[in-house]
Amino acid sequence: xSVQKFPGTKLSAKEMYSLPGLVESSPQAKYEFSAxxxxxxxxxxxxxxxxxxxxxxxxxxxxxxxxxxxxxCHVPLADWVExxxxxxxxxxxxxxxxxxxxRLEKPEVVGVIRLDVPGYPEDGYEFAGLFHRICxxxxxxxxxxxxxxKVKARWRPPEQRTGSILDIECFEPVG
Amino acid sequence: xxxxxxxxxxxxxxxxxxxxxxxxxxxxxxxxxxxxxANVDPRKDVDVFVDCQEDMWEGIAIADEFAPEPIGGALxxxxxxxxxxxxxVAHAYMLINSGLANVVAVEAHGKPSxxxxxxxxxxxxxxxxxxRPLPTGNPFFLAGLDAxxxxxxxxxxxxxxxxxxxxxxxxxxxxERAPYAARITLDDVLRAPYAIYPMSEYxxxxxxxxxxxxxxxxxxxxxxxxxxxxxxxxxxxxxEVGTGAVELHQWGRMPSMRQAALMAxxxxxxxxxxxxYFSLAEVEDRFSFMELLAxxxxxxxxxxxxxxxxxxxxxxxxxxxxxxxSGGSLAMGIQLEATGLGRLxxxxxxxxxxxxxxxxxxxxxxxxxxxxxxPSYTSAVAVLSSEVNS
Lengths: 175, 390
Known about the structure:
The complex is a heterodimer of chains A (175) and B (390). With 175 residues, chain A is mainly beta. Chain A has helices at 13-17, 36-47, 138-141, and strands spanning 51-55, 62-63, 79-83, 86-97, 103-115, 129-133, 150-155, 168-173. In chain A, the strands form two sheets. In chain A, strands 6-5-4-7-8 form a five-stranded antiparallel sheet, with no helix packed on it. A three-stranded antiparallel sheet of chain A has the order 2-1-3. The N and C termini of chain A lie far apart (45 Å). Chain B has a domain at 4-116 and 207-225: Peroxisomal Thiolase, Chain A, domain 1, CATH 3.40.47. Chain B has helices spanning 23-38, 55-58, 85-97, 118-124, 141-154, 158-171, 186-191, 219-225, 255-267, 288-297, 306-311, 328-332, 339-351; strands at residues 4-15, 48-52, 78-81, 103-110, 194-196, 199-200, 209-218, 230-239, 280-283, 365-371, 378-385. In chain B, a hairpin with a 6-residue loop joins strand 10 and strand 11 (378-385). The chains are: A mainly beta (175), B alpha/beta (390). The interface between A and B is medium-sized, with 24 and 35 residues.
């Protein structure tokens, strides 16, 4: 489809802002968020190639990403557990467009990984998991078999890790 | 209609910075202390959760979604109030008084230490069309305008403003929640350079991080949980015109606080002079002149006379009406939307006889008046009473 030529006068951005009726204002909003004791230790764990979670002493739920408290029992969490870096895809999506809805050069596949940790209750909807990139062909990702697919974390080399969620490059299919 | 009781309070922070804790961790800490204090299980006994915060302070859009979990409200009725904690208390009052809830928890928090561009965040609250483009300097210039107009109207001398700062910062030395307390004399304040005329740095409250939680209940239910009951006899709230166009504000006055006080006094059935009604007052003092203006707008002092009583020592800790025995915001800091709720906690502890070193003897009735700070013209006023100390 060819672009139609519309009637009217084309304005540059400079010309537009010079007209009364449009006032530009751009104060800065910058923050530094304290991660707190729990997420700090979780990030340190990632740097060491470990996924750490916390267990509620009362209900037994395992939180990954970990929390300071159990949101269901409202008690502070005490136990730390290292959980496997393997799991199954709970749900996944292929994005073809950016925030501004421009076409991406390379589609992104992201999803929620249910880690290989017992759910709560067993096989329930609450589970230890991570949202992350999934390294797979977008065309493959659209197929039904993606849901439930076995995946494993692909870690960055230890010297490149910074204590960030990006220390895991992505989750990739196994087996 | 049920009376409304405050049955538990909890807090975390009141520190210049809190790098040791995530903001939700801070909310969990204050709320679990309040629930322990009230002897309630948040997952069973609390009917509604009210959270007070504002997105630009939080640095998170739609921060409401981050509210329920840390205060025990996951999958329970929870809503957010973008305003001072005392406004949340007004919601709790309505929920309980209407019979919709028996027990309501109100949390408010502020973590200003994590905002790297605080002045700019204030500018986000200014009218972008005709106020932001002007060279106004620090956003607190608005308080300077009010201070000048107030002094001109009432004849309040500069020394009285300085005296408020000296009184409150020194008084805060007895309060564990007052990081900016210091032994500061009247001369220290008067000798300090002006920060925003007519006020020096000592007279402008600084910021501190805190989370505060308060648990409220209907009379019948309150007695099941505790015998340390503080009654919320009245609560009023009001917003003036003029936030967008500062020309419309009544300079040197705070009509929103006057209206909020009238509303709260009517609910509490206070007749005659409120100055003789209260054992203590925790009122807005984020700028020194505001304490005097707040005392006049709440009708504790006659128009223009607050400075006379202040100079006579009437508002001293040992005077007939201790004003800000906590040290106020000048000593405790401003915790953004938690500021009013923090002062409510001070009043509750006083009425329960649990204020420690700054306990006002025999405190039975307390006034709490908060203003949301520049550039807002919103105020809330609470009237509390208790028989615990009698």
